[in-house]
Amino acid sequence: MTAEAPVLELRALRTEFRAGGAWHAAVRDVSLQVGRNETLAVVGESGSGKSVTALSVLRLLPGAGARHGGGQVLLDGQDLTALSEKQMSRLRGEAIAMIFQEPMTSLNPTMTVGDQIAEAIRLHRKLSWKEARRLALEVLEEVKIPAAARRFDDYPHQFSGGMRQRVMIAMALACKPRVLLADEPTTALDVTIQAQILNLLSELKAAHGMAVLFITHNLGVVAQIADRVAVMYAGEVVETADVQTLFARPTHPYTEALLRAMPRVDADSQVLDSIPGGVPAITAMPAGCAFAPRCRLKEARCEARRPDLTDIGPGHQVRCVVRAEPYKDKA
Ligand code: ADP
Ligand code: MG
Questions:
Q1: Side-chain-facing half-sphere of 307: CA atoms under 13 Å
Q2: Which ligand is nearest to the CA of 62?
Q3: Pairing label, strands 8-19, 22-34
Q4: How far is ligand 1, taken at its centre, from the CA of residue 47, in Å?
Q5: pLDDT for 245-274, tens place per residue?
Q6: Whose atoms come closest to the Cα of 27: which ligand?
Q7: For residue 216, what are the contacts with CB-CB under 8 A and spacing of at least 6?
Q8: Nearest C-alpha to atom 24 of ligand 1 is from which residue?
Q9: Which of 12, 99, 256, 282 is a plausible cystine mate for 24, CB 3.0–4.6 Å?
């Protein structure tokens, strides 16, 4: 981790959904930090709370059925949870941009790619249409769309999957955000295209000094893109470490299981063959450790009390009473 203050910091973030007349947490006590020019990968099975975490940062969850349940989202020290909706909408796409797995959720099919990027720029900057179009072309070139000038007036459906993903990245970068949230942006792509997009994102992160929060269920992708990793399970961070440490010394039994089940980069399986069962529903969270029902190290104390996230090395933390035990005395 860098000594600089983080660009994006989540402090004990909690997000709840209403189900069956009660509120249930989908994200619980999540604390994360991402610095300038750093990629933090958030990894975990489907249903572990990755997308809800990212959507909570941007406050994009459905108003009626979702609520902020506590904690802070700090952007360069400013708490976004305290902003008005108007202030928040100014930040979205400007200071913090997000890209998704499916480009068509962000792209307008009825508008040429050049015009929609120019429009995104004009939403946040007072520029002439001509100037915005010039900047839009620049950013399409930056994401390496071949013959960008010629393709400027094409529609999204005229692009291949990989090229559409580049257009969406261009759109996200158009206002030079400080933070990029990427939610499984390469999952739908074949392995070669995926590797190209991951390389492009790494280059752009360095070129712009962006803080990137990269969500994936695939540890192969984590190995390619991450500086640091947070492993999520059932709405909690269960282990966090720099990428080398995570692969060399995985410590939470869930991280170990993820590694044993590590899909090849070209596989898109979201199931863990090595451990049966699945992530508990938010309405059926176990009282103690959420992973206990699937854990081969389970002891009685695991089910009695929810474990804390414990320091076990430099920048390395784990939420497991059994595995943190040897480190407790040294603290
Ligand atoms: P991930 O992105 O890690 O696959 P999500 O963040 O989408 O997981 O979901 C975390 C949990 O929150 C899941 O149990 C999911 O069912 C629940 N959830 C997500 N969105 C909603 C919603 N709009 N209403 C109710 N529950 C939701
Ligand atoms: Mg998701």
A1: 29
A2: 1
A3: antiparallel
A4: 6
A5: 999 999 999 999 999 887 554 555 555 556
A6: 1
A7: 41, 42, 43, 184, 186, 187, 222
A8: 17
A9: 282
